[in-house]
DNA sequence: TTCATTTGACCGAG
DNA sequence: CTCGGTCAAATGAA
């Protein structure tokens, strides 16, 4: 297929190394900006306040007691565990745009397949209560059912590429039926998720190389990357139109940086997405 | 060494 | 008591 030739033409190991370095520079630069101008925007202190609060709590909190009496309390009362949406896919590696961390796996009585339990990777950092269950429900052809619970309060969705990479049509055809709805939060998410973050995330996704989507979902983004992405996201105000607006030439240093490093090779990342993100 | 995943134990609901 | 959901120690990968 054209995939290999395309990738080979642009994706030598040297280029990848350069991209990785550039991306690392972008993170470092943003961090420096944040440190130099911590109050540049109203939300920029969130990260540090979070970190400091965590530090203080860890240093002053008493050592964990072996109290197991209620530590494993089941949390699914009717209101909390109400199912938000369901998604069936033949692809177990279907990528819904969010990062999940697996916290359990169970054999289900009525099914011969195990069910996996995930919670949002930002569960701690952003107190995000979103969870999902994933289970194979059919063998031939394989169908994997993902059931979503709770709401993403982290507002970090890496799956805005569809609207940004001009693959929306193909997405609409096939993926609309897979759209994940979170009830009344939809508008909020749609707005908050369509920021400049996508461009940066795209950069990173491209550097994931030959990893499978499953590996990417579970391992591809390190905690450092996530922090960096948070920083990037928080430097971009969501576009009121709900679409990505390229940085203007008269923009801030951040904008200039974006245009220099992140947007420059957008086409390459778009093509990456086309191939690697299974727009079948 | 750090961090994500695995896995068995624990818990509450039915 | 059974079952599904969650916790957290153990494990493994990077």
UniProtKB/TrEMBL annotation:
Region (Disordered): 42-91, 231-255
SMART domains associated with the record: WRKY
GO CC terms in record: nucleus
InterPro entries membership: WRKY_dom, WRKY_dom_sf, WRKY_plant
GO biological process assignments: regulation of DNA-templated transcription
Record's keyword terms, sorted: DNA-binding, Nucleus, Transcription, Transcription regulation
Primary location class: nucleus
Protein name: WRKY domain-containing protein
Upper taxonomic lineage: Eukaryota, Viridiplantae, Streptophyta, Embryophyta, Tracheophyta
């Amino acid at each position: 297929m054209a995939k290999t030739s395309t990738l080979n033409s642009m994706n030598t190991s040297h280029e990848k190394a350069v991209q990785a370095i550039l991306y690392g520079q972008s993170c470092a630069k943003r961090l420096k900006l944040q440190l130099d101008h911590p109050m540049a925007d109203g939300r920029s202190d969130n990260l540090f306040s979070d970190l400091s609060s965590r530090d203080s709590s860890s240093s002053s909190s008493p050592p964990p007691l072996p109290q197991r009496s209620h530590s494993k309390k089941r949390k699914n009362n009717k209101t909390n565990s109400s199912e938000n949406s369901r998604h069936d896919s033949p692809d177990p590696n279907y990528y819904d745009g969010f990062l999940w961390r697996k916290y359990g796996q169970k054999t289900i009585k009525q099914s011969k397949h195990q069910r996996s339990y995930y919670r949002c990777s930002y569960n701690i950092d952003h107190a995000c209560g979103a969870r999902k269950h994933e289970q194979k429900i059919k063998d031939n052809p394989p169908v994997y059912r993902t059931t979503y619970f709770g709401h993403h309060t982290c507002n970090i969705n890496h799956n805005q590429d569809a609207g940004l990479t001009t693959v929306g049509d193909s997405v609409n055809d096939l993926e609309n039926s897979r759209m994940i709805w979170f009830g009344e939060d939809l508008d909020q998410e749609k707005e908050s998720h369509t920021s400049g973050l996508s461009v940066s995330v795209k950069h990173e996704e491209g550097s994931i190389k030959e990893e499978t989507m499953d590996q990417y979902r579970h391992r591809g983004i390190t905690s450092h990357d996530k922090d960096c992405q948070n920083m990037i996201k928080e430097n971009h105000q969501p576009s009121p139109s709900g679409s990505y607006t390229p940085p203007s030439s008269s923009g801030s240093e951040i904008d200039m940086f974006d245009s220099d490093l992140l947007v420059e090779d957008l086409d390459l990342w778009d093509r990456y997405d086309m191939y690697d993100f299974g727009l079948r």
